[in-house]
Amino acid sequence: MAAQFWLLLRRLYLTLYNWTVLFGWLKVLYLAVQTLGESGHEHVYDAVQRPLQLAQTAALLEIIHVLVGLVRSPITATLPQIGSRLYLTWGILWSFPQTQSHILVTSLVISWSITEIIRYSFFGMKEALGFAPSWLLWLRYSSFLLLYPTGITSEVGLIYVALPYIKVRILMMLNKEIFFFFF
Asked: Where are the transmembrane segments (predicted)?
């Protein structure tokens, strides 16, 4: 009886988690596409910043899910995926505002959004209904053929765009350290 209760609780929690994050990513995609059409790529980040940060940061829970055994994903796959996304979200886009109006932000946000909408829909339906439709299964394991190259190109491109600003920040930090060392 207790085991069934915990299984039900696990299923309910994962269903709520997946559907909540799915709606977050739907909002990110909607705002990105709307802003792109109305104002251009230069304004996409401003429109999606908060929901993007929330959706990406919520993925930290997935590391906990793996560690406590709620899901069977390997930590060796989960950690780098979430770490790289958080690095882009907080370490590049948030830390270096100069990158926020670049066109690669739009391709990044759209690639990530579509990927995560498919992923969270798949897992949300699997937890809620016990299965996912075959078309969603196909999307889950086929869409990466297009979305992975656009996502990774955007990620690497934005890191490259940020490099001059990273260099300046490092030099400023080193100059402060040298100054305080001598005085």
From this structure: 12-33, 103-123, 143-166
Handedness of CA 159, 82, 149, 37 (dihedral sign): negative
Residue type at 150 in one-letter notation: T
Catalytic residue (one of 141, 148, 160, 177): 148
Q: Do 95 and 107 form a contact (C-beta atoms < 8 A)?
A: no
Tokens of 106: 């739009």
**Closest Cα to residue 108, out of 19, 32, 7?**
32
Can 148 be counted among the known catalytic residues? yes
What pTM was computed for the model?
A: 0.92
Tokens of 10: 């696990």
pLDDT, tens only, 88-109: 999 999 999 999 999 999 999 9
Q: Which of 155, 160, 165, 177 is catalytic?
A: 155
> Which tokens go with 102?
């670049």
Q: In terms of C-beta density within 10 A (0-12 exposed, 13-18 middle, 19 or more buried), how is residue 145 classed?
A: exposed
